[in-house]
Design brief:
This protein is an alpha+beta fold. Helices cover 43% and strands 26% of the residues. The protein has helices at 2-27, 47-61, 76-92, 99-107, and strands spanning 36-39, 67-74, 112-121, 131-141, 148-154. A hairpin with a 6-residue loop joins β4 and β5 (148-154). 19% of the residues are buried.
Length: 156
């Protein structure tokens, strides 16, 4: 009987330790301590607005456990082309819907920030593959001209 109690205690301790490790890996933040920010010249945003948008994007991606966020970049020409693609998609298919298109139409082209985020993950988060990758983050500038709100992010 004593051996059974000891075996159960050892088993419970092992399960608890494994659960603790899984919780730690799943809840830790991404490393954003060395993010490089690169912004093109902008006719839409001030330097302070660009900097705030970059920091908002870093905040959004800080939830990517096991990843290191390396670079957040904004290219106004690329952003305009992506918004043009939204217009083309809607023109070609009137039933087309996207959060980006809705925000663009609601807030206007001059309040949409589209960033490219380059990062590397260690594979500890099953939803993110190990290695280098890139995603796009879409934000809009709130009416106060200072606060950025995320629309969406993903591969595209």
């Amino acid at each position: 009987m004593k051996r059974i109690v000891i075996a159960i205690c050892v088993l419970l301790l092992a399960v608890g330790a494994i659960g603790g490790v899984v919780h730690w890996f799943g809840s830790r933040s991404a490393d954003t301590s060395h993010v490089e920010y690169a912004f093109s010249a902008s006719s839409k945003f001030t330097d302070a607005q660009l900097k705030a948008a970059g920091h908002k994007t870093a905040e959004v991606f800080s939830g990517f456990a096991g990843c290191t966020i390396e670079k957040i970049s904004y290219d106004e020409h690329r952003a305009d082309k992506l918004l043009d693609l939204e217009d083309t998609a809607k023109a070609e298919s009137p039933s087309y819907e996207s959060a980006i298109y809705d925000a663009y139409k609601r807030y206007g082209r001059n309040r949409i920030f589209i960033a490219t985020v380059d990062f590397t993950c260690d594979g500890s988060d099953a939803s993110l593959s190990a290695g280098e990758q890139s995603m796009t983050d879409y934000l809009y500038l709130n009416d106060d001209g200072k606060t950025w709100i995320e629309i969406d992010h993903g591969n595209g």
